[in-house]
């Protein structure tokens, strides 16, 4: 029996399969049956290593269902393995890492307790929305970035004098890192979001570098796509050329992909942390390096 096993959540089969090959590990697949009341019944096929297991499961919509499945897989792995590493390529609830308004529950603090209780001894995430969230996990943790993998893809494209753009000030460091890897300039837009309504407005004067250039809008995740749409519409008015989107996690809720393309985006390029039509960049090698 292999000294290492990779246990695949049903919705993270692609990354799990690639990881098992890179790590020369035994792949344990899961089959999931959803009952009419919404309960999940998971059945594993394959041999779990007694030494170490790696559970791979992204926590994306339906978030609560996939969270319970991830915890169940970890619990089962811990029954056999002495060490269990939880690889959560996309960590749901990462935006709920602090109390923004009085009375709000910090859900990431709850998740930290749940993962530990289930039996995880280490957690690995990819481009988590906020590093503050991982501080709530009382165990070894590591966040890896997909930026080098995304940059590698964009370097293969024929872009005209490309400029890296962050759709907001919060993603400034991400755009800066991307630009450094890509060997280009970057700017970050200023947006204002109403915390109660969620409505976004862009207010920025830093647009003198935009005209007649191809742009790469860089973000960690796209949910409804509102920030990307607003940014694209704003940048198009500044006479830019093509607009591309580079993103780690493609949630793309409520026809977001269609709306983003309608706003004028040439191509949406995301990683396989969440499977979708736009998930064309593989991050399994980056995750494997974090495990080794």
UniProtKB/TrEMBL annotation:
Keyword field contains S-adenosyl-L-methionine: no
Molecular function in Gene Ontology: ATP binding; kinase activity; magnesium ion binding; ribose phosphate diphosphokinase activity
Q: Tell whether Repeat is among the UniProt keywords.
A: no
Q: What is its EC number?
A: 2.7.6.1
Top enzyme class:
transferase
Please give one Pfam family short name: Pribosyltran
What keywords tag this UniProt record?
ATP-binding, Cytoplasm, Kinase, Magnesium, Metal-binding, Nucleotide biosynthesis, Nucleotide-binding, Transferase
Organism expressing this protein natively: Marine Group I thaumarchaeote
User: Residue ranges of the Phosphoribosyltransferase domain?
Assistant: 153-263
Protein family per UniProt: Belongs to the ribose-phosphate pyrophosphokinase family. Class III (archaeal) subfamily.
Q: Which residues form the Ribose-phosphate pyrophosphokinase N-terminal domain?
A: 5-119
Q: Which reaction does it catalyse?
A: D-ribose 5-phosphate + ATP = 5-phospho-alpha-D-ribose 1-diphosphate + AMP + H(+)
Name of the protein this chain belongs to: Ribose-phosphate pyrophosphokinase
Which SUPFAM superfamilies does the entry link to?
PRTase-like
* Cellular component terms (Gene Ontology): cytoplasm; ribose phosphate diphosphokinase complex
> CDD domains, alphabetically?
PRTases_typeI (cd06223)
Could you tell me which SMART domains the record lists for this protein? Pribosyltran_N
The GO biological-process annotations, alphabetized, read as:
5-phosphoribose 1-diphosphate biosynthetic process; purine nucleotide biosynthetic process
Q: Which NCBIfam families match?
A: ribP_PPkin
């Amino acid at each position: 029996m292999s000294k290492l096993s990779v246990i695949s959540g049903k919705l993270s089969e692609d990354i799990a399969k690639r990881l098992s090959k890179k790590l020369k590990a035994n792949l344990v697949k899961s089959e999931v049956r959803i009952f009419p009341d919404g309960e999940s019944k998971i059945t594993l096929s394959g041999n779990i290593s007694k030494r170490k297991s790696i559970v791979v499961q992204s926590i994306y919509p339906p978030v609560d269902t996939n969270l319970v499945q991830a915890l169940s897989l970890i619990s089962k792995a811990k029954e056999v393995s002495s060490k269990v590493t939880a690889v959560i390529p996309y960590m749901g609830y990462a935006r709920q890492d602090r109390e923004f308004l009085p009375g709000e529950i910090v859900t990431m603090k709850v998740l930290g307790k749940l993962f530990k209780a289930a039996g995880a001894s280490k957690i690995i995430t990819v481009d988590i929305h906020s590093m503050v969230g991982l501080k709530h996990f009382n165990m070894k943790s590591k966040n890896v970035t997909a930026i080098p993998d995304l940059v590698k893809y964009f370097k293969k494209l024929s872009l005209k004098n490309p400029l890296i753009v962050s759709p907001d000030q919060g993603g400034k460091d991400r755009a800066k890192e991307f630009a450094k890897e890509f060997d280009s300039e970057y700017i970050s837009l200023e947006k204002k979001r109403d915390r109660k309504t969620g409505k976004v407005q862009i207010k920025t004067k830093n647009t003198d570098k935009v005209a007649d250039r191809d742009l790469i809008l860089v973000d960690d995740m796209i949910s409804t796509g509102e920030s990307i749409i607003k940014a694209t519409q704003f940048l198009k008015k500044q006479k830019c050329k093509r607009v591309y989107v580079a993103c780690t996690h493609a949630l793309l809720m409520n026809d977001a992909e269609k709306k983003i393309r309608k706003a004028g985006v040439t191509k949406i390029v995301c990683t396989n942390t969440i499977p979708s039509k736009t998930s064309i960049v593989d991050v399994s090698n980056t995750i494997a390096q974090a495990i080794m």
